[in-house]
Amino acid sequence: MPTKQVLGLKQATDNLRYDLSKIRINKSVSELVQMGKADRDKIPFEKLAQYKAVDRDIVQGIQHVERKLIQELLPLRHKRLAASAFSFFRGTDELMAFDLSKQVSTNIPVVISGDAHIGNFGFYASPERKLLFDLNDFDESTIGSWDWDVRRLLVSILLAGEQLGLDNDQNQEIMKSAVATYQQILCECFDDHSAMERYYFSTEVETFLKSEADDQPLPKLWRKILTSASSRDSERVVKKFTTIDSRGHLVFKENAPRTVHVSDKRFKEISDHLQKYDQTVSPDVTVLLSQFHISDIVRHSVGVGSFGTRCYLVLLTAIDGSHLVLQIKEALQTRRFQGFDVTTPYSQSGPDNGERIVTCQQVLQRASDPLLGFYHNDSSNRSYYVRQFWDMKESMDLNKMDQDDFETYTKICALLLARGHAQSPTAAIVRGYVGKKKKLANSLVDWAVAYAKQVHQDYAQFLKALDNHQLAKEADHDA
């Protein structure tokens, strides 16, 4: 076991350097709304309905991605991608981004999730230990056009709805309802609420979900998740993921290849880099972390699209014997298809990717994990972000929803997406553009239906490539 290392007190770093100037504009809300209305003449809703097929080789694209991933994890990654068309869609967000870059777009910039499918919303704890529900994945977050997020949300609704056995008419009605919710909330944000009211909007589960369900009691499924999430904390992580080794030390259990202990060299490297991370959190968190030392570290892979990247769990033990588990995730460059140009008017090449993710998450989420931070490994030129593992984190099991629950869930996701976008001042332009007309929903749904067919074609091509052993020929061995 490597020598215990305490997370020391460090002086805070400079402010985040991710450039947010593209969403700052020196105009009043009414002026911005009028700008959005004027944009309808330049880009009418009908143009958003037109899907333009893009010539690309998805096998080549996936190979480019996987050359940067850990080779021994690729079979498990492929198994997750192959589970369904929806799983494939979730794990290849960069492919849709490439396609979106070739479509007609409004190009009205806001801070976007970049991967706003319905599986990327979930429960987590606020600093006050309240259970919240919000966007919870920001690996692809950036400044971009609002409609990229809405389109990805709609396609995910259709693919998930198909898995639930809903027919085409039912799925289209649910998608249109989601767009209508997005329009309604964005209009309310700028017509009825001040900047501070938009900022302080609550996503606490008990109050928020009840109000959004027309004052009806929470469905049983939500109640079950609420109870489950509330019990997911660091001490439960310790019970589930750790054991006592032959020397009497508390260590993580191994489950190769998904969960394996790191080498002594990697242990020291991560320990040293956590000192850098310590400089990116607030002073109160720095003082908190100074009470812990590092007990154990494993590489632990999670997710679908991110499965195969460098992810670690760090077991920390406090001076009072309590525990904290941090998760370290590799922060890859947005849209990871090398050779597939997805440059947008708002692309940035300078900021650290961990810094980008942390910045955008703090903008889009009403309350973020206070332990959220980042660091850069200069020797390998890799970026990472750090957060608390589990900590009341839970997600909805979409496969267990009936039609009513599914529609309620999609509306809540659309609402939260609108609330997140509304944190950007430029979202007032979006409000002017989207208005309240049903024609927008019809156009975006038409595009989503056409793109879902493309996803099914890509999924079939992926399965064929797996059968022909075209994938996993080359990859990075470094873990």
UniProtKB/TrEMBL annotation:
It comes from the Bacteria. This is DUF2252 domain-containing protein. It comes from Lentilactobacillus rapi DSM 19907 = JCM 15042.
